[in-house]
Amino acid sequence: MLDIEKDLDAVTVSTPDHTHGIIASNAMNRGLHVYVQKPLTHNIEEARKLTQIAKKNKVVTQMGNQGGSSTGVVKIQEWVDKKMIGKIKKIYAWTNRPVWPQGFPMQDNNEEKPKNLNWDLWLGPASYTKYTSQLHPFNWRGWWDYGTGALGDMGCHILDAPYKTLGLHYPTDVECSVGSVYQQAWSQNFIPEGCPPSSIVTLHFDKTNKNDSKIELVWMDGGLRPSHPEDIPADDFLGEKNSTNGVLMIGETGVISCGVYGLTPKLYSKGKKTIEFDTGGESGLDHVHHMEWINGIKAGYKSEVYKKITAPFEYAGPFTETVLMGNLAIRSYMSMGEEKPKYFEDKYHTSEFGKFVGRKKLLWDGDNMKITNFDEANQFVGRSRRPGWNI
Questions:
Q1: Can you give the pLDDT at residue 95?
Q2: First vs last Cα of the chain: how many Å apart?
Q3: Do 172 and 203 sit in the same domain of this protein?
Q4: What is the rounded CA–CA span in Å between residue 240 and residue 257?
Q5: What is the arrangement of strands in the sheet containing 61-64, beginning at the earlier edge strand?
Q6: Which of 49, 141, 155, 173 could be a cystine partner for 323, CB 3.0 to 4.6 Å?
Q7: What is the pLDDT of residues 337-383, one digit of tens each?
Q8: Enclosing domain of residue 82
Q9: Does residue 59 sit in the same domain as residue 92?
């Protein structure tokens, strides 16, 4: 299409995660501006490449984490800049995702492919597998070859507020734990090709020019959420209504709370009245976020209008790399290296007695995209690709 159509100005990418990178890179290398849904890419290496390609071709870009255009994020930035809760040392973030099947084996199937679906094209860089409705049209999110799990689905929406307002960059390390599914007694589901039903990811960051303290960020999904801080009244929801998604930024003298997209931020300060900022739901966030990009295209790369875009790839790329560090840790958590457990009941169920060599704190060299203390984890920085699908 990009070769045939000669009058294109820009491309929007709303495909499954595993094809974001190849489509966006092909467009940018033709001088086309691009808008790519979150997460920007399927893996860390692709995010770095898209950032570089956008800069090389001087195109106007935007990642589709529309919460970045929320007035709630602006208000949180104001509170952080004014040091209204002092130095921030810990962040909790969580989501109710996954809301699709995860942690279960892929079932054998002999389904007929829809006649209007080019299955080989849909697979893109992923290795060939026969068509199944367990992947298409929606449940691809729970399988690593195509999706990025709960963290990839919601991380760029939820973590944008703390990442941006605190001026975070690459983490120094990452570790995790994941939930287990037992369909048989003493026999854990072992599905390294699939995302887990729940996870906790911990990242550490150095101090920044916006926050003079090292920071620990704890991400939770699959229905997990943090305990109620004592600064927040017991009857208040955490984050958004019903505490389903949210962020808590824990400071020396209080807590900043918000929901997904940075909406409904609240500031709880010791001994003071709670400050609430009404974002009004901001139902038009998608439109605002798109118009930032369109206006940036009209004004030109690096124009004053361009500089107001909230998630250009020079920001969205490193941010996505940070989000996907959690998935690198989760996939490493399932690694057994050469030491297999005493028995596998079948390929999807293992005993408790194997040695999971990747269950450790992984030290990260962000500039060089490398885990320095567990080389096996580095296979998850990028991915294997079918011929013809390289970026």
A1: 98
A2: 17
A3: yes
A4: 9
A5: 10-13, 33-37, 61-64
A6: 155
A7: 665 555 455 666 665 556 778 899 999 999 999 999 999 999 999 99
A8: 70-104+144-276+322-380
A9: no
Of the candidates 286, 362, 285, 372, the residue with the CA atom closest to the CA atom of residue 324 = 362
Asked if residues 254 and 274 have their Cβ atoms less than 8 Å apart, the reply is no
pLDDT tens-digit series, residues 183-210: 888 777 888 899 999 999 999 999 999 9
If asked whether residues 83 and 176 sit together in one domain, one would say yes
* Tens-place pLDDT, residues 20-38: 999 999 999 999 999 999 9
Give the span between the Cα atoms of 245 and 322, in whole angstroms: 19
Q: Same structural domain for residues 233 and 364?
A: yes
Does 301 share its domain with 168?
A: no
Nearest to 51 by CA among 303, 299, 321, 286: 321
Q: What does the block give as tokens for 287?
A: 């439109």
d(CA 59, CA 161): 25
Pairing between strand 33-37 and 61-64? parallel
State whether residue 182 is helix, strand or coil.
Answer: strand
Q: Which residues pair with 327 in a beta bridge?
A: none
Of 352, 21, 52, 364, nearest to 189 (Cα)?
Answer: 352
Cβ(156)–Cβ(38) below 8 Å = yes
Do 148 and 182 have their domain in common? yes
From CA 304, how far away is CA 72, in angstroms rounded? 22
Residues 374, 376, 378, CA angle at the centre, nearest 5°?
90
Separation CA 81–CA 87 (nearest Å): 10
* Distance, CA of 64 to CA of 269 (rounded, Å): 33
At 271, is the pLDDT very low, low, confident or very high (cuts 50, 70, 90)? confident
pTM of the shown model: 0.95
Instruction: For residue 138, count other CB atoms closer than 10 A to its CB.
Output: 12
* CA–CA distance, 111 with 328 (Å, rounded to integer): 32
Asked if residue 191 belongs to a domain, the reply is: yes
Could you give the dihedral angle defined by the CA atoms of residues 324, 325, 327 and 330, in that order, rounded to the nearest 10 degrees? Answer: -170
Two tokens, residue 355: 């040695």
Rounded Cα gap, residues 356 and 354, in angstroms: 6
For residue 263, is it within any domain?
yes
Cβ neighbours for 168, distance < 8 A, ≥ 6 positions apart? 162, 205, 208, 215, 322
